[in-house]
Amino acid sequence: MPRTRFLSYPARLRTAVSLPVLVHLVAALIAVGLAGRASTAADSATALPGTAPLMFEGDLADRMVAGIDRYLDRETAAAAASRGRLWKVDRSSPQAYRASLEPQRARLRKMLGVVDQRVPFTEPEVISAPGSGPEVAKAKRYHVLAVRWPVLPGIEGEGLLLEPDQAPVADIIALPDADWTPEQLIGLAPGVPPAAQYARRLAESGCRVLVPTLIDRTDTWSGNPAIRMTNQPHREWIYRGAFEMGRHVIGYEVQKVLAGLDWLDRKRTVAGSPTRSLGLVGYGEGGLVAAYAAAIDPRPAVTVVSGHFGPREGLWREPIYRNVQGLLAEFGDAELAAMTVPNALVVEACQAPAVSGPPAPKPGRSGAAPGAIITPPLEKVREEVERAADLTRGLKPSHSLFLSGDGDGLPGKTATLDLLLNLVKENGVLAPLGTAPVELRTAFDPRARQKRQVEQLVEFNQRLMREGEHRRRALWAKADGGSVEKWRESTRPYRRQLWDEVIGKLPPPSVPANAQTRLIFDEPKYRGYEVVLDLYPDVIASGILLVPKEIKAGEKRPVVVCQHGLEGRPGDVADPKVDSPYYHRFACRLAEEGFVTFSPQNPYIFGDRFRLLQRKLNPLGKTLFSVIVRQHERILEWLSSQPFVDPERIGFYGLSYGGKTAMRVPALLEQYSLSICSGDFNEWIVKNASVEHRYSYMFTGEWEIFEWDLGNTFNYAEMGWLICPRPFMVERGHDDGVAPSEWVGYEFTKTRERYDRLGIGDRAEIEYFNGPHTIHGVGTFAFLRKHLRHKP
């Protein structure tokens, strides 16, 4: 990806403009400073007619990213404040309340990727180590079995079962934190103090307890030794591929819990009637999974969420494997709690697991996303519980939400477990803390179990990726290729789906464009203007406009929007003094041919600063391209208003991340009359989700790149279909390391076939050349001249 960095305007005016223009601008700036006024006659002379003078002195890219960040903070706060208005429930009875929440449950299941049908129920398999019996350990009132149970095709839950010697008083699923093993939670391995071993304490009190293994936060198997290893926690390694395919590591673990509930539900049912209550308790990551599972499935009579409850507006600071697309637009922890009602929910306020970030990078291992887990203040936990109570106010019985703990210490406090037992069994009594069970065998290896669990989920993601093409084909079956007009009309719902459900649609700009410009180049054949346009408070679009001098009064010229790549700036493509090895001044060269060009600043700049924007956008159901689409919409609106521009002849040409833009923005904004994707078009889903190819983003630090459920909806061929019937071209250097040429050809063939079958094959082209990741500018320039109807 292009990463060339340059100083911003006007800091590099001394190298970017001719001496007379520089003297003129400096004089204008001095005049402004001396007079203390917003504009002068000199300033106006440097502005494009019909626009205000641009007086901003700093880095426009920095201003853009910082402004988007402030805007998203406001939007996140507004989403939290407005969720109550979405809460349309029937409180007339517990049954009516539960039924009225089914639409929310359906949306939450989709957000978490809990959409696959679990395999038919079977009894958990007891795992015996070689040379040992079925028991892992024996205690005074129960024995311990290593078990696994089927969940999804190729995926099993695995952990320990604490089976009481007498009839159980309740059936409980006890979820440890991700970094605690089931053995630690019952005292068979060191690491968890006896009082916090809540699974063991519940078994000592007469409960049957199933303790699943969670995917942990180590990076042992995160990568492919034949390609590259990473420092991604196992949870992130699974999250990446799952997210692209509309699944989630959280959803997979919820499915394991629900499969466990399937088994326990059958065990407690005699002659069609349940004989015992089901309970669910979890700490840290286990508390997170318990909260989601109880919100989705009403079977647990009592759920305890420990070390994970509070305001969720800082989700973007948490580890990326907690990132859920669209979550905060509808759900905070209070809403999840309210969805468990009329069943009981106990929130235990205690210390959260201390997670300062992913495993430290080391030679040969890097690329993980930042993110930490911190303990919220007790008053914030109380406020969130109160908010949940407000959502359920008026429902009878009213005592379903409980707060336990003082915000400190470890989970599983006696008061919490006492409350849990009283709720699952009237007059239930917590037994005094006993001794740890006696280990009967040592051959069982928790590390090998973790490896199996990781590999099963990775392989399930790979299977989804391989099947994605078939699901996309089924999704697109309703598109009508009978004629160009039928195609255009029948693909409108797909365009809406891409914008609404994948990219995410921001509201239309809320403030006027207020165009501000200043002259920064005066070349023999064209003038260059820096342009700033407003969209929302704090949010701007900006770029460099190059206007050929030869345009006659009343003449309207075609425009090429020239888009830079990752970490790029408009000057990389539109500065006559810069000849980047990636861009080769292609906006300047087109302006010399008589095209008007506009080179926008896109917000994918400043490393993790822009990636954290994606983290703030995702929980709102949006992406970075949600912002970029609205920026380009405003740019098109403003360009179309210029007297020298033909609004019907505006094309798009982008390299690398600009090529990503070339696939998404023209697919949504039909005013772009053509699109050229350079150095990016390929088999995009494999590029994102594969663990078997060195080109994959699974191994890199571009942790923001993944788009929710894209693999089942829109690969690059399908995005090309949304550009169709407008002209579309791919520019591909054989030495480009983004992907192999055969991937590019495979995916482009599907796009080209659509054009051919509509009888417009001459509108879809690909140019291969011997060269690297760069603007070649040969066939593409001819394509622009032809389809924008322009003679140099």
Described by its quaternary structure, the protein is single chain
- What is the terminal separation in angstroms? 31 Å
Average pLDDT taken over every residue: 92
Q: Which range best describes the helical content: under 10%, 10-25%, 25-40%, 40-55%, 55-70% or over 70%? A: 25-40%
Low-confidence stretches: 1-42
Largest sheet: 11 strands, mixed
Sheet-strand content, in percent, reads 15-25%
The 3D shape can be described as: elongated
| Class from helix and strand fractions | alpha/beta
Please report the number of helical segments.
Answer: 27
Give the strand tally. 26
Gyration radius from CA atoms, angstroms = 30 Å
Main attributes of the structure:
eleven-stranded mixed beta sheet; about 800 residues; 27 helices; ten-stranded mixed beta sheet
